[in-house]
Amino acid sequence: MRKSLTLLAAAAVLSTAGIAQGADYAIDPTHTFATFEIGHFGASVNRARFDKKEGTISFDKAAKTGKADISIDITSVNSGTAAFDKHLQSPDIFNAAKFPKARFVSEKFVFNGDKVSEVVGQLTLLDKTMPVTLKANQFNCYESPMLKREVCGGDFEATIDRTAFGVNYGVDWGFPKSVRLVMQIEAVKQ
After folding, report:
1. Are the C-beta atoms of 48 and 88 separated by less than 8 Å?
2. Where are the domains of the chain?
3. Fold of 21-189
4. Are 146 and 132 in contact (CB under 8 A)?
5. Which residues contact 184 (CB under 8 A, 6 or more apart)?
6. Are 116 and 136 in contact (CB under 8 A)?
7. Which of 8, 44, 98, 183 is the most buried (most CB within 10 A)?
């Protein structure tokens, strides 16, 4: 009896050895973008993106778990207008000289079936950290025909209150406190 239990236990360990486990992914900077949108006097919407970003994702589809650590270089803000970029980097808004990086860290991925539906985490901006949930508009993993590796990614968005991070510029003039964040993220399996 003891021998059969030992054999059964050994068989169970060996049978789980082939089951897919989580993997690490590196952010693909050519397919990853962090952008923001904020209303401008109710007439239009100002938009800009950050051109430099890096990070890692740990993802286990079978266990439905994941982690993310994404850094954004605030000095790379790009609105398409040099004067506006300079103002965005100034102490009025992002204070890029003092706080050159923003960071999003998550230890909780929420799934709807096999797809990631939300990434719950903490955003650090201007040395203040607040909870932020990125909602997935779409998510997919695929075998890249060019890279010959798995790539996972999605289109995510969240709305934050910028004043919670100390970005108060223009509130007295009627600029909204709400800012829409849009994250297009693709990461390559390592």
Report:
1. yes
2. 21-189
3. Lipocalin (2.40.128)
4. no
5. 31, 32, 33, 35, 153, 154, 155, 156
6. yes
7. 183
First-last CA distance in the chain: 44
The partner residues of 141 in beta bridges, in order of sequence, read: 152
Contact 115, 150 (CB under 8 A): no
Sequence length of the chain is: 190
Residue 132 amino acid letter: V
Token duo for residue 167: 């970005």
Give the whole-angstrom CA distance, residue 117 versus residue 137.
Answer: 8
- pLDDT digits over 7-50, tens only? 334 334 333 333 347 899 999 999 999 999 999 988 999 999 99
Structure tokens at 100: 């050159």
Among the listed residues 181, 166, 170, the one whose alpha carbon sits nearest the alpha carbon of residue 48: 181
Q: How confident is the model at residue 114 (pLDDT cuts 50, 70, 90)?
A: confident
